[in-house]
Specification:
The protein has 97 residues and is an all-alpha fold. It has one domain. The chain is 74% helix and 0% strand. Helix 1 runs antiparallel to helix 5 and helix 4 runs antiparallel to helix 5.
Length: 97
């Protein structure tokens, strides 16, 4: 999970915008939804052991960052670079506590 946080923090805006555009396009192709569901399931199940507090914190951080990504790059909320990095650091702190 910490690797995921680091990757998000290092992404540049142009690359991330392209990823958001691609995700938006893909979501209009219903046949791709099961593939995305499987991807998210397989890549998150190792982080989310809901029987442990650490797993619930990791899940919360992940979902918050996914929401941050979509809010920003779908143009639903303006988020400055400072806010972006602060939220990522808050998620990191949540996991490390």
């Amino acid at each position: 999970m910490l690797g995921y946080l680091s990757a998000i923090q290092k992404e540049n805006e142009e690359t991330t915008q392209k990823a958001a555009n691609l995700m938006t396009t893909v979501l209009h192709a219903p046949e791709v939804i099961p593939v995305l569901q499987e991807f998210y399931h397989n890549n998150t199940k190792k982080f989310f052991d809901n029987s442990k507090k650490s797993g619930r914190k990791a899940q919360l951080a992940f979902l918050a960052l996914e929401g941050l990504f979509f809010l920003k790059f779908l143009g639903l909320k303006k988020i400055t670079k400072k806010e972006w990095y602060t939220i990522i650091e808050d998620a990191r702190s949540l996991i490390l506590k």
